[in-house]
Amino acid sequence: MTINILVRKECNVSGLSIFSNEEIKRYSRHLILPQIGMRGQQKLKDSSVLLVGAGGLGSSLAIYLAAAGVGRIGLIDFDRVDLSNLQRQILYTTQDVGEEKSSAAAKKLSAMNPLVDLDIYSERLTSENALEIIAKYDIVADGTDNFPTRYLVNDACILLDKSNVFGSVSQFEGRVSVFRKGRGPCYRCLFPTPPEPGQVQNCAQAGILGVLPGLIGVLQATEIIKILAGIGKTLTGRLLMVDALDMHFDEINIRQNSSCPICGEAPTINGLIDYEEFCHVAEKPKPRHTSETNGPFAEEQISPHALQQALQEGKQEIIILDVRESLETEICKIEPSLNIPIDELFARKDELAEDKVIVVVCKFGEQSQLAVDLLKSIGFNGVYNLEGGLERWAREVDDNMPQY
Asked: Which homologous superfamily is 292-396 in?
């Protein structure tokens, strides 16, 4: 679904719009900057930016681009506001929980600056719609949190010759760069291949300092404004790395890869591909649901209800192995359980009894599956993964368990 909000009226004289008194007052601090002035502000007004993602990065991006007077802003996000978002996604309030992010964001941005046109896409960016949507904008800001969409945005921008202002965050660290066809490397030059599934945790798994997405989003917005106004030196060909814990900024130069399959000398990618398959997240999952007739331990996965029943019956001695960090077990856990963080699992394997049933748990069931694979590779046999993790356990078995 696409919603267009507000149509601006412009009056051109000698190639420059006549700014209204309201616009002059609103943008006055830009207008008196020699590097921007009337002409630079006019460039912002005549420009368009697509924000891919309306989460932590997208929140600060949207706020500052709208405040700066970027003429048209597109916002694409299919998700809804969750209570856990409010720690960092400053576009939303408690009253927005459950509402579509794109719609809630549009209300806030329109109220803040009604002079900006807003295009709202309450859908997922895919290989089927990316070229059509991105073609409408001058610049794309990548505020996503998953690798398939990052590669999709990169490739679409290269194919359409659009600038891609990239940002990413994890825990206390953030990264920012600008990828521009013909002027420097692209995202694939920096990351030729995606990580294996589960190798890199998202914010829900690893945690995130609430202010960090705001900081990185502001840096992205700064780069966008400079590109649109034609001022300053951008991060093209450079990766800015931020360590918020020690408040340290570092920078590395990125070289364009002449063999890059999308921006190199002989590109082999001439259209958008299946990015979930490319990032190894589209493989057929293993059988998930345990058949009750075959018993709770007939499959590698065990459902929350099946585990609850097995614990209540007490026919087998079951060790609940929690592979989350110890501080996460302070929030919630299944009692009783043994906590060995996944990074310590190999070194502490002797704490586990090989002749007992081990059910491995984590928050979502992804890290625990990696732990199951590790234990099986070193000789453990009776090891099972709690399907859906503690998040599903809380939904289906114990609704009093805190969710985080």
From this structure: Rhodanese-like domain (3.40.250.10)
